[in-house]
Amino acid sequence: MLYHAHDFAEQGLKAYFNLMAGVDRLWSASLGMAQAFSPFPDIDVMKPVRDTLDASAAMMERAAKSYTKPAFNLSETKIGKESVKVIEEIVSDKSYCALRHFKRDADRKDPKILLVAPMSGHYATLLRGTVEALLPGHDVYITDWKNARDIPIDKGDFGLDDYIKYVQDFIRELGPDVHVMAVCQPTVPVMAAVSLMAQDKEPMQPLSMTLMGGPIDTAAAPTDVSELAEDHSIDWFKNFMVHEVPPWYAGAGQKVYPGFLQLMAFVSMNPERHVKAHLDLFNHLAEGDVASADKIMDFYDEYFAVCDLPGRFYIETVKKIFQDRDLARGQFIFEGRKVTPSAIKNTPLFTVEGSEDDIAAPGQTLAAHGLCRGLKADQHYHYLQEGAGHYGIFNGSKWRNEIAPRIAGFVRQAAARQGIFYDAAPDPVKAPERWIGWSKANDNRLPPPSSLSAS
Length: 455
Prior knowledge:
- The chain is an alpha/beta fold and 455 residues long.
- 40% of the residues lie in helices and 15% in strands.
- The protein is built from 13 helices and 14 strands.
- A nine-stranded mixed β-sheet has the order 1-2-3-5-4-6-7-13-14, sandwiched between helices. Strands 8-9-10 form a three-stranded antiparallel β-sheet.
- Strand 11 (333-334) and strand 12 (337-338) form a beta hairpin.
């Protein structure tokens, strides 16, 4: 009944904050009217007070706001010096995910990218900056995961195996010339999907695989996130984190990990930062610094927009990825079959990490190389972005200026190995760095994850 209680409490708090915002607006308007009758109309001594009241009202209104799924708002991109129209289209619509295509109005042959977004609380729009930087030189598709509370229970349950099957279906639909790219949580199911396709010798295996800031092996570099999973039993997660969707939603009766609990977890990881950001927001509003205020509000409009996860998927992720580390230990089972990453032989691997990542710390994603032992030494690439946290490896200036150009260079290089060539990249690309932590004494294969070290 926690979900039910939360919704009732939330509605009460929203009504209170709206009331308080109205009071602040009323006081501000009253002071403005009083100024009109002042004997000194050119001396507005009450302006600082009115600005403070208006700022307080704006903060109250934000507290009462419903943060729904944001839009991508990527209606155009710039290819070279030319502005090009972008149209969003859904090319595949499944119960729990829509495959969204950012179709550019340009006659170009560019790498086709399947960008697998996390199913971890935030919407795929969190990767807006990721898509934006890729658009000029790539044909981009993204997995747009749906809010589980809006999915009717008769659509069936959704688990980690279903996620893997969705990824495989999307790869097959996009064809043999697709490059797959996973950010954070999906690095594990994406590697599993590609491994299984390699085991079956499917012709639709992707041309390349880029894994960014994900929990391939959480033991390689423990964080607060991995330690939380280790410190609690799986029954604790089932009892305290999974709840039933109330009857006023389309997904009534679904077992989910609610978005509001996820948001509480996100905020609790760095509460000082969020408190400071909102104090700064209040001050910017009071000072009339609209540009600075808008920047903070835009970030939190995205950050506070969370969605429910399917309960089974969440529990299986905690158990198989964080607690038991099935993939890293060679024990990952998909529908009764063991997943074998060493079967991957034709899909080069590029891993990306941030030196300041406190969610998937450096080493967790790097461990993928030790699992993909079927790849040759010149098919392993890795990049560590100095000074980047988790969010910074797929958004912001470091992503745009350092990481995205390396991914562009990697996918073009991987395609060239297969005899596939593209139009000249509209923006400068950077050659990806080879990962040379492999041993010639071991048949040019990488050593186990525990003995990986940078060279």
